Amino acid sequence: GYPSILVTCLMFCICFRLLSNYGCYGGKYTEREKQRSMKRIGIVTFFQSYNYGVWFQAYATQAFLRGRGYDAQIVNYSNLHDDEKLKMAFKGKNSYMGYLISFAKNILFGGMHYYRKGFKKHLNTFYSLSSEHCTQIENLSDLHYDVLVAGSDQIWNPETTGGTLDPVFLLQFGIADKRISYASSIGSTEIREQDKALMKKALEEFSYISVRETFAKQQLEKIMNRNINVVCDPTFLLTGEEWRLFAKQYSDYLENDQKYILTYFVSLEKYSEHCINLVKTYSESLGLPVWAVQFTRYYSKNCDKKILGASIADMIRLIEHAELIITDSFHGVALSVNLGKNFVAVENRGNPYRTRNLLSRLNLLDRIDMDIENYSKVDYSNVTVLLNDFRKESVDWFCEAIEN
């Protein structure tokens, strides 16, 4: 009769109302989460290079934002100078000899082959990119986002962009309701006089500004009458457990019972007598072989096994199962900390601030150039508390910058 029909209609309306408030994972959406899912965010950063740190930070920024419900993608732009480095031969270090050196690395030592194996073939697996790849700011004028984010890495260091500041990395393009920076870096050099006016003018258009190092904060606050925030590197926006799940899903490396010291070097420190002796001493004292992560087959001292063409997922797995990591890479240190691993940081004297800044904040400065006589495993009880606090501050800042 009519009562039963009315009850049925009422139950249908209630069920429809409940289902409409639930997301694809079965969790109830709040109004803020609904707004997030509609907000389009464009990330501008380095995202492809012969450098694990570039890939890690770009992936982490996008994964974090998408995990929070935003429609985030990386703007498919490469700085022309950085794009040149991915060719078979390029003018490295502004010298014609660079053509010969880069060609030799790619042909004789397999650089391009291992780059394609470890990175290029994973481009669309790890990233969501805007449609067309470009190297000119003119091609970005019609892009439209709710929020543009100048991402991490040394995007504001002219040395990494061919000697001049790149206006794309200063977000001087496209249409956006808001422009912000997250953990952007100027490297370890002071802002040049000829760049101060340009940076000041460009950054005045930003709603929120954050950098990765205290050094950058101090430099920018000298030329701008506003507060600059220091936040954690994007790789810390993902927890160690999230990185492990990522590696488990995408890594080709299988778990094994082998014990090893993992090394990864990005600077010329690896050729120094200090670094060579440090690795050798640890290997002999701990009785462990050395596995070296490299981009080419070029000869390495104190290396028992070369890891060539590893993806970023493979790299996480290798760090996760190493007994000790020895590295001069900031991201090598950052990921070791995030995964709770024992490590020794070889100081990269050409760019020391970012690693020192991080380890100082976590009370781990003694890990820099730690010799075997003073070696001990990292006590993560206090480090984890400090890291979680830093992560929360950074996450809160980032979300507030996007939403307010």
Biggest sheet, spatial arrangement of strands: 9-8-7-10-11
Q: Report how far apart the termini are.
A: 53 Å
Give helix % range.
Answer: 40-55%
Low-confidence stretches: 12-29
The Rg value, from CA coordinates, equals 23 Å
Mean pLDDT: 87
Q: Tally the helices: what do you get?
A: 15
- Global structural class: alpha/beta
Principal-axis shape equals globular
The count of DSSP E runs of length 2 or more, i.e. the number of strands, is 11
Largest sheet: 5 strands, parallel
Percent range for β-strand residues: 5-15%
- Helices and strands, in order, run as HHEHEHHHHEEHEHEHEHEEHEHEHH
What does the model show?
The chain starts with a helix and ends with a helix. It has 15 helices and eleven strands. The model is unreliable at 12-29 (pLDDT under 50). Helix 10 crosses helix 12. Helix 11 (273-286) links the parallel strand 7 and strand 8. It has a five-stranded parallel beta sheet with strand order 9-8-7-10-11. Strands 2-1-3-4 form a four-stranded parallel beta sheet. A two-stranded parallel ribbon has the order 5-6. The protein has helices spanning 2-20, 31-38, 52-67, 80-84, 97-107, 111-118, 123-126, 193-203, 214-223, 240-250, 273-286, 312-321, 330-338, 353-361, 380-403, and strands spanning 40-44, 71-74, 144-150, 175-181, 210-211, 229-230, 261-264, 290-294, 305-308, 324-327, 343-345. The protein is globular, with a radius of gyration of 23 Å. It is 42% helix and 12% strand. With 404 residues, the protein is of the alpha/beta class.
